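Researcher: I'd like a structural prediction for the single chain below. Treat it as a standalone chain; there are no partners to consider.
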Amino acid sequence: MSDNRVDPGGNTEAFRAFTRTPETPAPSKAPYVIGGVVAVALIALVAWLAFG
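Model: Treating it as a single chain, here is the predicted structure.
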């Protein structure tokens, strides 16, 4: 009786296709840049109000 499922260990190409994970794009750095700009602006505002 034949099995309908293919054994990925049967040959190297099938095994590599079986174990390959999809490539995901690098996460965006935009939230960190925006957060940094906001943090610098807040620090500048607090310094201006405290010492200005």
